[in-house]
Amino acid sequence: SSADPASSSGITTGNGRIHGENVTLKRCIMGAYGVGQHQIVGGPDWMDSEHFDIQAKVDQPIDDDVLMVMLQGLLADRFKLALHRETRTASAYVLEVDKKGSKLEKAEGGDSDTTTSTGKTGRITMSIKNTDMDAFSKILARMDLPVVNNTQLKGLFNFTLHWTPDTA
What we know:
The chain contains three helices and nine strands, in the order E-E-H-E-H-E-E-E-E-H-E-E. The longest helix has 16 residues, at 64-79. The strands form two sheets. A seven-stranded antiparallel sheet has the order 3-2-1-6-7-9-5. A two-stranded parallel ribbon has the order 4-8. It is α+β, with helices and mostly antiparallel strands. Helix 1 (25-33) crosses helix 2.
């Protein structure tokens, strides 16, 4: 269904369900295929401007990887999405742990959740819960360039990022 582009947006997964609030088709593709926004080329003009709410649930709890495959099927069915992959040389960021060690808050488990909101001044807040570093790298890649996880951190973490983009 259509959603209000002015409110916060995000996709929550866990226990066999996907809840997408105020997400664009491009955002859904990024999540379903684990790619960043600059890795998606082509598509309709409205792919980055129309917003949708998505609710999907399966009968039993399943891994997020399986949920993303199901989201791929939903995108193919509802949006007639067809794609192909190609390899290109590109710049990338590398995510590493500081020499003094990690100070991230370990999560106790539960639903994975990423919520992003933009304030009136252009400041962005991203709240990330129950997320491992590989998934976090994919989340960061949505902003700009691909991100490689070299942290070697295991487990789930909770954290909040605040920043103002150069374009604000």
